Amino acid sequence: MAAASRKKKSTKGTGGLTFRSEALAEALAKQDMAAVALALRNGNTVVPLMKPAAKDNPLDTGEVWTFRDPATGDVALLLFSDATNKPANLPPAVGLQSPGWLLAFLRTHRDTITTVFLDIAGPHPMQAAPDDLIGALAD
């Protein structure tokens, strides 16, 4: 076997579905906000779910988990380039959401969500304002 390293795919318990966005991971590694916007606009994003989607209902996307700072009341949306980047202390379920879903979610909750963290626990975390992401997704 060759000595080349292999990337572990995030497929455990997903029926072979990969919960990863290579484009988003590469953009975050470069810390390039324009590339992050392009990756979000053209690919899927991993989101933590408080309540998983119903498997027999294709219209159910689950209930997204958000973080509320107990000291300030500020609400953050956490997005991930790979399900393996989600910290273990968050709810175990994840969803793979489309750019259209992300735009609609941010528009719906723009008055509540104060910030969006991407891969908050690394390896290459970034932070963005919801309105900046809405602008990038709507272009």
Largest sheet: 4 strands, mixed
Q: Helix-strand pattern, N to C?
A: HHEEEEEHEEH
pLDDT averaged residue by residue: 87
Q: Give the overall shape, derived from the CA principal axes.
A: globular
Q: Helical segment tally? A: 4
SS-derived structural category: alpha+beta
Measured by DSSP, the beta-strand proportion falls in 15-25%
Q: Going across the major beta sheet, what is the strand order? A: 3-4-6-7
Q: Report the uncertain regions.
A: 1-15
Radius of gyration: 15 Å
Give the tally of β-strands. Answer: 7
Task: Please estimate the helix content.
Answer: 25-40%
* End-to-end C-alpha gap: 45 Å
Write a short abstract of this structure.
The chain is built from four helices and seven strands.
How are the secondary structure elements laid out?
Blueprint: H1 22-30, H2 33-42, E1 45-51, E2 63-64, E3 66-68, E4 75-79, E5 93-97, H3 99-108, E6 113-118, E7 126-128, H4 130-138
Helix pairs in contact: 1-2, 2-4, 3-4
Please tag this protein with its features:
27% helix, 7 strands, disordered N terminus, 4 helices, alpha+beta, 139 residues, four-stranded mixed beta sheet
Can you give a write-up of this model?
- There is one protein chain.
- With 139 residues, the protein is an alpha+beta fold.
- It is built from four helices and seven strands, in the order ααβββββαββα.
- The strands form two sheets. A four-stranded mixed sheet has the order 3-4-6-7.
- The longest helix is centred in the N-terminal third of the chain and has 10 residues, at 33-42.
